[in-house]
Amino acid sequence: MTRDVNSKYWDEELETLPREELEKRQLTDLKEIVKFAYDNAPYYKRSFDAAGVKPEDIKTLKDIQKFPFIDKKTQCDTQGVGSFLGELCAVPEEDVIFISTSSGSTGVPTMSPFTKQDFDEFQDTESRWFWQVGMRQNDRYVHALNFSLYVGGPDVIGAQNLGALCIWGGTLPSERLLFVLKTYQPTVIWTSPSYAWQLGEKALKSGIDPKKDLNIKKIIVAGELGGSIEATRKAIEDLWGAEVYDFYGLSDIFGACAAMCEAKDGLHIAENHILVETVDIHTGEVLEPGQVGELVFTTLRKHARPLIRFRTGDIGWIDNTPCSCGRTHGRIHINGRKDDMFIVSAVNVFPSDIEAVIRELSGITGEYLIRVFEKDFTCKYSVEIEKNTDNPASDEEVAKIASDALKARIGVKPYQVVVHPDGGLNTRSEHKSKRIIDERKLEYNI
Q1: What CATH number is attached to the domain comprising 355?
Q2: 43-51: long-range contacts (C-beta < 8 A, 24 or more apart)?
Q3: What is the rounded distance in angstroms from the CA atom of residue 345 to the CA atom of residue 342?
Q4: DSSP string, 224-240
Q5: 121, 295, 380, 424: which could form a disulfide with 415 (CB 3.0–4.6 Å)?
Q6: Residue 57: helix, strand or coil by DSSP?
Q7: pLDDT tens column, 370-381
């Protein structure tokens, strides 16, 4: 298939389908995958029978609400049961050509298997996202993501299938990666938002100006929320003189399931592959599009391990209104992880709320650490930040400015703001940065 390099669409027909036609295709695939899961995955047959539902109950997209949820615990409990790939797997092992695993940050790492068709469609979706952010055949692309079992590693194949020159950077040390960026002058890079910021800082400290000495035009970020926080995105863009686009993926499904377009108003999700619901985090009640809750995904075309009503643990909402870019697939907005949210004085606080404030303040480096703890049997939080070396203000003045800004934006004041010198926080990482320390001993339910 020959594509017009001037077209902003990888697959214009698919990406601009009228909503009615898109949902018609979703329903056809939903009926097929639910039946396939019931007939071939032992867990689904058992759970559907226990819930008194059958594949034939799917008449409309809303009928998926009759079916039981699964979650990360379901994956852990069924993995390795009955077979190497477990009771959620719906194909024999000889049909599986690739597996990735989760990080195991919430428990035992879980496998994500792919048939050849699953994998090929996964990579076509990656090509679609790369094209969406403006990558073309004449680009040089550095894939600076972990290749060790990480589902985002193979996404580089989507860039190769598009025709870009690809450099499989992986998790190179910063000095080596900067050598690659200066020597080979690539135009696009993908990494985490915190590392994009830190790499730019390291470049400046080593005498390399990212804007003048490098040729990066576009930075793709994923794995953390920073790319969807405007203040963080703008800070990275200003540092590099490049456009920043956020991608969202799940090891449970495939690399990038959603991506920003030029409008940068949420991330278009691949609705030809994923049916999206939003549910109340307490009751599981299905919410209307636009309402904030836990995102629940049903895979429509992944056959190795179908996920029927998978509770992602991500808090956000979906916007199905028309996007200015012309694409009709819905846009998801992620507020944070359910596991990371904490409540102070009856206010739900996400680390992303705090980051948005910190990144906008002048005179500090933008690095931060959140401590959540108990005092007088209530939940409190403190924030630690770094002051720029050329900031003449006292630590007390910087702390007050930050504290007031957090109170104004979030609605609850931190118990304290601790100010460190530049480099005083151990939060810089070449992967995901750890920014939350939970010191609570009591159990707090959201």
Answers
A1: 3.30.300.30
A2: 43/74, 43/78, 43/86, 43/87, 43/88, 44/88, 44/90, 44/306, 44/308, 46/87
A3: 10
A4: SGGGGSHHHHHHHHHHH
A5: 380
A6: helix
A7: 999 888 767 889
Query: Residue holding tokens 């009228």?
Result: 18
Look at residue 432 in the predicted model and tell me its pLDDT.
Answer: 63
Average pLDDT over residues 53-66: 98
In 3-state terms, what secondary structure has residue 420? strand
**C-alpha–C-alpha distance, residues 242 and 203, integer Å:** 15
What tokens were used for 41? Answer: 């995955």
Q: How many residues belong to the chain?
A: 446
Q: What is the CATH number of the domain that holds 304?
A: 3.40.50.12780
What is the pLDDT at residue 377?
63
Q: In one letter, which amino acid is 68?
A: P
Tell me which of 213 and 146 has the higher pLDDT.
213
Torsion of CA 93, 99, 104, 110, to 10 degrees: -30
Residue 345 C-alpha from the chain's centroid: 29
Query: What residues are paired with 349 via a beta bridge?
Result: 342
Q: pLDDT, tens digit, for every residue of 337-350?
A: 877 778 787 677 87
Q: Which of 333, 334, 340, 357 is nearest to 410 (CA)?
A: 357
Shared domain for 358 and 276, answered yes or no, is no
127 CA to centre of own chain: 17
Report how far residue 317's alpha carbon sits from residue 328's, in angstroms, rounded to the nearest whole number.
16
pLDDT exceeds cutoff 70 at 38: yes
Query: Residue 430: its pLDDT value, please?
Result: 58
Cα-only R_g, the chain: 22
Higher pLDDT, residue 1 or 202: 202
Angle, helices 193-205 vs 174-184, to 10°: value is 80
Query: Both 310 and 387 in a single domain?
Result: no
Structure tokens at 91: 């194909």
Decide if pLDDT at 113 tops 70: yes
Residue (of 221, 197, 201, 198) closest to 145 by Cα position: 221
Q: Are residues 15 and 129 in the same domain?
A: yes
Query: Does residue 443 fall inside a structural domain?
Result: no
Q: Give the angle subtended at the CA of 329 by the CAs of 325 and 332, to the nearest 5°.
A: 95
Of 288, 310, 336, which closes a domain? Answer: 336
How many domains does the chain fold into? 2
Could you give phi then psi for residue 136, rounded to 5 degrees? -135, 180
Domain membership of residue 400 as a residue range: 342-438
Q: Is 44 helix (H, G, I), strand (E, B) or coil?
A: helix
